[in-house]
Amino acid sequence: MKIVLRENVENLGRRGDIVEVASGYGRNFLIPKKLAYLDTPGFRKMLAAERRAKEARELREQHEAQAVAGRIAEMSLSIPKKVGEEGHLYGSVTAQEISDLLAAHGIEIDRRRIVLTEPIRTMGTHTVPVRLHREVTAQVTLEVVAEK
């Protein structure tokens, strides 16, 4: 029996794969649990249309992410923090603070997309990567200055 997987099934295949399975396994387990569809020409057309729509959506999201990356690259952000005598910060600059600073400049970015390998604990200029899309990463230039 040929079926098309709706979800990733361990030891069988990934979503959208057309696989051959035993008829009992397909009829009694995969199809009732909504893990697969019976392979029909109509369903193949629907799957192809769905795949085209997903590719178009991915392309559109990538272009939007590139536009946002261009806006971010032009920015130079400054964040005031309390500083000790040797130039070390009291606390650190977090991804949430960077996200809030970007939001104040009109760019809404989720804090989980800001890639900080370690917290920023020193004054000066830092470059922080922001993952906007699977294939698009922007670099935010962040200057940490002493609070007055």
Polypeptide structure, described:
This protein is of the alpha+beta class and 148 residues long. The protein folds into two domains: 2-63, Ribosomal protein L9, N-terminal domain (Ribosomal Protein L9, domain 1, 3-Layer(aba) Sandwich); 68-146, Roll (Ribosomal Protein L9, domain 2). The chain is 35% helix and 31% strand. The protein contains three helices and eight strands. The chain has a three-stranded antiparallel beta sheet with strand order 2-1-3, with helices on one face.
Provide a quick synopsis of the model.
With 148 residues, the protein is of the alpha+beta class.
SSE inventory with pairings:
Elements: E1 2-5, E2 18-20, H1 23-30, E3 36-38, H2 41-74, E4 76-81, E5 88-93, H3 95-104, E6 120-122, E7 124-133, E8 136-146
Parallel strand pairs: 4-8
Antiparallel strand pairs: 1-2, 1-3, 5-6, 7-8
